[in-house]
Specification:
2 domains
Length: 317
């Protein structure tokens, strides 16, 4: 029977009454939602317990990689009382703030004169507008400084900003591997243009520095395509593991080089997201300083470093 099988008759209609009121959480347990738009603005929003005399405020705190921490940056914060006795805090950070923030990583915190600083938890991060912003930048590279402001969550769930402010850099658009070759396409952002005869440069890191150059295919005032000289790198390596950085020399008569980077995305881990395969090559040339001249392939793999700079490693396994 239905009773034996545990069936229960549908419940009757619920009584309607006043909606339940969810009590506010403390700032330490609150999460911050962030919306990025294509114009470079970030808008923050969070809800916490009643503000009272605390006067909580959004504050950006620098997390340096070299130990030199910059001053904290307060962000003008608006407060709205909620029906449940809590407070909604909102703030907006415009692109002009990057002149002060510079290039780096920042903790999104809230501070009160009556409490210690709280590194806020990340809530919803809407960065969809940055997808179109990157496409626009690659299609129409700016002739001035590049700014970028990306909110992201640390592995522990705390909210961070990755800020980019570059007077001049090359943004890598694509990297293709095949038939023993590596080809990249990039755009030059900044005040200079790519001149006829511009050079792509690979530079060996370490005490035995070495540069190899190849002419680029100029695709416009700011766009180019280049074939990485992997054969020359393999034939002239000195160690079983080497790293070679990628550069662009926009003017063959001006030796100033610009770093090739992959910085501008709607997610933080470009290094992990773009895991390129390795290209096998066999060396032809003899180097007096080579540790082992290979009878087996040497593997060449492009990669994006944690800082966003493009390079490749050359490994004799």
């Amino acid at each position: 029977s239905a009773a034996v099988r545990g069936y229960r008759a549908p419940a009757g209609s619920r009584r309607t009454g006043a909606p339940a009121t969810v009590p506010p959480v403390g700032i330490g347990a609150a999460t911050v939602d962030v919306v990025a738009d294509g114009a470079g603005w970030l808008r923050f929003s969070t809800e916490g317990s009643g503000d009272g005399r605390h006067r909580w405020q959004f504050v950006l705190r620098h997390k340096p990689s070299d130990g030199n921490r910059r001053p904290d940056v307060p962000v003008r914060t608006s407060r709205t009382d909620l029906d449940n006795g809590g407070t909604r805090y909102t703030a907006a950070l415009g692109p002009s703030a990057l002149d002060e923030l510079g290039d780096g990583r920042w903790q999104v915190t809230m501070r009160s004169a009556r409490s210690k600083t709280v590194h806020m938890k990340a809530g919803i991060r809407d960065t969809r507008a940055l997808i179109d912003a990157r496409a626009d930048l690659v299609g129409r590279p700016p002739t001035g400084p590049v700014t970028w402001n990306l909110p992201y969550a640390q592995p522990n769930g705390r909210l961070m900003l990755r800020t980019v402010l570059r007077e001049e850099h090359v943004e890598c658009a694509t990297v293709e591997l095949g038939d023993g070759a590596i080809t990249l396409r990039g755009v030059l952002c900044g005040g200079r243009r790519i001149e006829p005869g511009a050079l792509f440069v690979v530079s060996r890191r370490g005490p035995h520095g070495k540069n190899f150059t190849v002419p680029v295919e100029v695709l416009g005032r700011h766009a180019f395509r280049a074939h990485v000289p992997v054969r020359r790198v393999v034939d002239h390596r000195l160690e079983r593991w080497e790293d070679w950085d990628w550069w662009l020399q926009p003017d063959p008569h001006d030796r100033r080089k610009v770093r090739v980077c992959h910085l501008l995305e709607d997610f933080p881990d470009v290094k992990g997201a773009y895991a390129y395969p390795s290209l096998p090559l066999t060396g032809d040339g003899i180097s007096d300083l080579a540790v082992i001249h290979p009878a087996r392939p040497v593997w060449v793999r492009p990669y994006c470093s944690a800082s966003g700079a493009m390079a490749m490693n050359v490994v004799d396994r």
